[in-house]
Amino acid sequence: MYLEIPGKFKGLVGQAHQVARQVFRPISRKYDRAEHDYPVELDMLAALLDAMNDATGGIAGSGKLSQQKHSEGVRNGTNMSTVLGLIELCWGDTGLALSLPRQGLGNSAIAAVANDEQLQRFGHKWAAMAITEPEAGSDSAAIRTTAIADGDDYIINGEKIYVTSGERAEAVVVWASLNPNIGRAAIKSFVVEKGTPGMEVVRLEKKLGIKASDTAAITFTNCRVPKANLLGNPEVDTKKGFGGVMQTFDNTRPVVAAMAIGVARASLERTQELLLNKGLNYTKSDQDLTALEASLLEMEADLEAARLLTLKAAWMADNGQPNSKEASMAKAKAGRVANHITLECTRLCGPAGYLEDELLEKWARDSKILDIFEGTQQIQKLIIARRILGKSSSELK
Amino acid sequence: MNAIGIALNLANRFAGSDFAERTRLRKPAEKLAYIVTRRGFSAVIKSQGALSKRKAKTNKDKQSQTSQKPSSLFDLNLSEEQMMIKDNAARLAERLREEAASSAIDRKPSEAIWNEFDELGAGYFILPEDLDGMDMAHASETWMLLTEELARGDMGQALALLSPVSVALAISRWGQSGLQHTWQSKLIESGRVQASVAHQETGVNRNDAQPSCTAQKKGNSYRLNGHKTMVPISQSAEFFLVSASLKDKTFLFLVPRNSKGVTVSQLPSMGLHSADLGQLHLKNVDIPLYHCLDAGNFDAQEWLARSQVAAATLATGTAQAILDYVVPYCNDRKAFGEPITHRQSVAFMIADMATEIEGMRLLNSRAASRAERNMDFTKEARLSFLQATSKGMQAGTDGVQLLGGHGFIQEHPVERWYRDLRATPLLAGSLII
């Protein structure tokens, strides 16, 4: 047993923290106010990050996540380094971390299922992910966007919303059905490159938080893409089908949990700086604690539990162990405690927590999305409960 | 700010400046940044690697003296030895569960259970190798694993059974050599010496770090005065390890039950009945100086931290027992024509319970693993204790709730677990890891 951050990632964590402190924090408020402005600083940073990734094997984003298969010995690999990197980056700014070029969820999908030819074409493109529709949120099997075969192409029709980096990305991975009558087995993902006729960004959403991240609504009107842009197997297998598409999420849920941990830690640290003369005393008896200290201790315990659950889920992925339940546990716990902590910190700090000269109010807005996207709190609970109770999705709805 | 931080800060300011935009310098600048950074980071990482290797080497020299295990990777796997001990404990836990369910349990573990516990060999784990023991007095992870498994059987019996172990662990960790030898020969003789720690005190003013029980040095002995409560195996213990204030500091004193001035009484409590909790009264009790557990290395905070992890672990095992129980119960229980687990309100409670238990277990594991490696674990212990206190009790109350009216009657064990779990915050100072 060893539950510390491995020495080999100390450098990476330190670098990610410097990025968060020196790059994200100084421009955090600027892009919170200027929603939809492109954070130009990120291009420079992306170049630095590519260099860091090439030098260290990955610090940011979910671009290279996958379930690792290997022969022997314990591994601490990409899943763990990504989680550790994102905790630090989101300590800086969640919206900016989400806006990092080439680190999107679309890249994750490509990394997970693309064939060699597709990797060649799309591997270095910044790819967004388009799943949600106005009438299909958590129930991603209910999507109505269609991709109908026509000669060497598919013709895509439909409307997608909440596409993170939908305007900035160079390509969008779109979920669409080959045949809406068959249901979830017919759902496939397609890479649609920016500029493809028929694909149009119709709107950028105004949001509660993570304003630095652009969230687009995109329509597809007779949008023609080559058949070679379908990711994975084009066959409709009614027996398997959906599982493969959903598998991407087993790898990305711990990453979103990590983001929640980062922003919550930022709030907790800042609140301690503002309200305590020196650090928390972990040996004070329960009855001697002030209400503030008791609250801070409870929050720290919750956060530490969430952090360890997240590391466990990532560790399992790195070691080829199925981690669907653990990934959901991490996401559920981290999502709810991060939202609670950021809100509680604004309360504890009074007006300073509410006004814009501190970032506390921003973190309290940013954290909410982390309990929603990549599967809401409720969806995570469904996944966990079905596993523990041995129930199917038709039994436990 | 280190070198990388300074570089990033400069790059950031430059990237956001109008100057870069106006002069269209950004693209070449990015290219340059890429090359410099890649080379720079490679170098930094290499040098960090070399440094940590050098550090590791000096640590290793130390490790051979302090029996630390070298491991640099995050790893939740158990060693073969740990798995073996855990499996054996799990079998005993099943027996504890049966015993606890039968009303025959007369406020303490039966002789048969004590014998089965002895067969686990905990006494020999503690003894040093030159006495044919396994030299595991410092194997905190193993003690944590054993504690959780036994609590999964029954929290009260686990507390009782592990009390002599904790006293032996404390003596081998902090006792003077004379006391250590005495204790070792007793362990060799019988495998177990009935003893428990007496730490909690009556009244509402609690400060775990400062007992109101006092010790005074009188010539060649310490004189102890005060009252202790919630003392495990109060009927059978031959020795009590009593926490008391000596001047301003807290120490542990080994008090033989037959000392003059010692009386033991009973006072029933909400739960933990199978631990045989009792009260200990000390009136001018004189014990020899070497019965004070201080070979110059005693740290009351460390002792308390070890006990916080043990208490958190007891709660975790008990909460796991609840989860083990409610899953089949709720799957079998039908209402409105289907199993109640087909309802989200029920299923979500169980999902949360499972999640929190896993979180508790990981907090305990981290604290125990740090303790075993001689790393500071004060913070980790407190966090595990806090989380187990609140989430353990949550599991207790949800367990009863999930069974509804059936949860409230003694036909099912959940009401007992509910009562037992309320004791978690009071178990600081009882067992140690």
Automatic annotation (TrEMBL), chain A:
<keyword id="KW-0274">FAD</keyword>
<dbReference type="InterPro" id="IPR036250">
    <property type="entry name" value="AcylCo_DH-like_C"/>
</dbReference>
<dbReference type="GO" id="GO:0003995">
    <property type="term" value="F:acyl-CoA dehydrogenase activity"/>
</dbReference>
<keyword id="KW-0560">Oxidoreductase</keyword>
<dbReference type="InterPro" id="IPR006089">
    <property type="entry name" value="Acyl-CoA_DH_CS"/>
</dbReference>
<dbReference type="InterPro" id="IPR046373">
    <property type="entry name" value="Acyl-CoA_Oxase/DH_mid-dom_sf"/>
</dbReference>
<dbReference type="InterPro" id="IPR009100">
    <property type="entry name" value="AcylCoA_DH/oxidase_NM_dom_sf"/>
</dbReference>
<keyword id="KW-0285">Flavoprotein</keyword>
<dbReference type="Pfam" id="PF02770">
    <property type="entry name" value="Acyl-CoA_dh_M"/>
</dbReference>
<dbReference type="InterPro" id="IPR006091">
    <property type="entry name" value="Acyl-CoA_Oxase/DH_mid-dom"/>
</dbReference>
<comment type="similarity">
    <text>Belongs to the acyl-CoA dehydrogenase family.</text>
</comment>
<feature type="domain" description="Acyl-CoA dehydrogenase/oxidase C-terminal">
    <location>
        <begin position="240"/>
        <end position="389"/>
    </location>
</feature>
<dbReference type="InterPro" id="IPR037069">
    <property type="entry name" value="AcylCoA_DH/ox_N_sf"/>
</dbReference>
<dbReference type="GO" id="GO:0050660">
    <property type="term" value="F:flavin adenine dinucleotide binding"/>
</dbReference>
<feature type="domain" description="Acyl-CoA oxidase/dehydrogenase middle">
    <location>
        <begin position="128"/>
        <end position="223"/>
    </location>
</feature>
<dbReference type="InterPro" id="IPR009075">
    <property type="entry name" value="AcylCo_DH/oxidase_C"/>
</dbReference>
<dbReference type="Pfam" id="PF00441">
    <property type="entry name" value="Acyl-CoA_dh_1"/>
</dbReference>
<protein>
    <recommendedName>
        <fullName>3-sulfinopropanoyl-CoA desulfinase</fullName>
        <ecNumber>1.3.8.10</ecNumber>
        <ecNumber>3.13.1.4</ecNumber>
    </recommendedName>
</protein>
From TrEMBL, chain B:
<comment type="similarity">
    <text>Belongs to the acyl-CoA dehydrogenase family.</text>
</comment>
<dbReference type="GO" id="GO:0003995">
    <property type="term" value="F:acyl-CoA dehydrogenase activity"/>
</dbReference>
<dbReference type="GO" id="GO:0050660">
    <property type="term" value="F:flavin adenine dinucleotide binding"/>
</dbReference>
<keyword id="KW-0560">Oxidoreductase</keyword>
<feature type="region of interest" description="Disordered">
    <location>
        <begin position="52"/>
        <end position="73"/>
    </location>
</feature>
<keyword id="KW-0274">FAD</keyword>
<keyword id="KW-0285">Flavoprotein</keyword>
<dbReference type="InterPro" id="IPR006089">
    <property type="entry name" value="Acyl-CoA_DH_CS"/>
</dbReference>
<feature type="domain" description="Acyl-CoA dehydrogenase/oxidase C-terminal">
    <location>
        <begin position="300"/>
        <end position="430"/>
    </location>
</feature>
<dbReference type="Pfam" id="PF02771">
    <property type="entry name" value="Acyl-CoA_dh_N"/>
</dbReference>
<dbReference type="InterPro" id="IPR009075">
    <property type="entry name" value="AcylCo_DH/oxidase_C"/>
</dbReference>
<dbReference type="InterPro" id="IPR046373">
    <property type="entry name" value="Acyl-CoA_Oxase/DH_mid-dom_sf"/>
</dbReference>
<dbReference type="InterPro" id="IPR036250">
    <property type="entry name" value="AcylCo_DH-like_C"/>
</dbReference>
<protein>
    <submittedName>
        <fullName>Acyl-CoA dehydrogenase</fullName>
        <ecNumber>1.3.99.-</ecNumber>
    </submittedName>
</protein>
<dbReference type="InterPro" id="IPR037069">
    <property type="entry name" value="AcylCoA_DH/ox_N_sf"/>
</dbReference>
<feature type="domain" description="Acyl-CoA dehydrogenase/oxidase N-terminal">
    <location>
        <begin position="79"/>
        <end position="188"/>
    </location>
</feature>
<dbReference type="InterPro" id="IPR013786">
    <property type="entry name" value="AcylCoA_DH/ox_N"/>
</dbReference>
<dbReference type="Pfam" id="PF02770">
    <property type="entry name" value="Acyl-CoA_dh_M"/>
</dbReference>
<dbReference type="InterPro" id="IPR006091">
    <property type="entry name" value="Acyl-CoA_Oxase/DH_mid-dom"/>
</dbReference>
<feature type="domain" description="Acyl-CoA oxidase/dehydrogenase middle">
    <location>
        <begin position="212"/>
        <end position="285"/>
    </location>
</feature>
<dbReference type="InterPro" id="IPR009100">
    <property type="entry name" value="AcylCoA_DH/oxidase_NM_dom_sf"/>
</dbReference>
<dbReference type="Pfam" id="PF00441">
    <property type="entry name" value="Acyl-CoA_dh_1"/>
</dbReference>
